[in-house]
Amino acid sequence: MTRRFIIRHRAERDIQSALDWYESREPGLGDDFLDAVQNKLELIRNFPESCPVIYRDVRRAVVSRFPYVVFYVVGPARVSVLAVLHHSRNPNLWPRR
Q1: pTM
Q2: Which CATH code is given to the segment(s) 4-96?
Q3: Is residue 27 within 8 Å of residue 21, measured between CB atoms?
């Protein structure tokens, strides 16, 4: 059975916000960030259990080249991406999201 892959609206906003920030610093860097995030999301989609559980059932995947992490949960029918946050953000913030 194939699980549904869902990116929550807050996670989409996280990605867009970071992409805009990187692009404002250097043209093309936002695209590089988006490529790195998309590669990580594809890895999560194909191998959802490959990343460690860090809090209850929430898993963390580190984005290559950029200081961002993807927080997600794996259920029997779906994989849900909850947030994409800078690694220096307070980890106590994301469970409330």
Answers
A1: 0.90
A2: 3.30.2310.20
A3: no
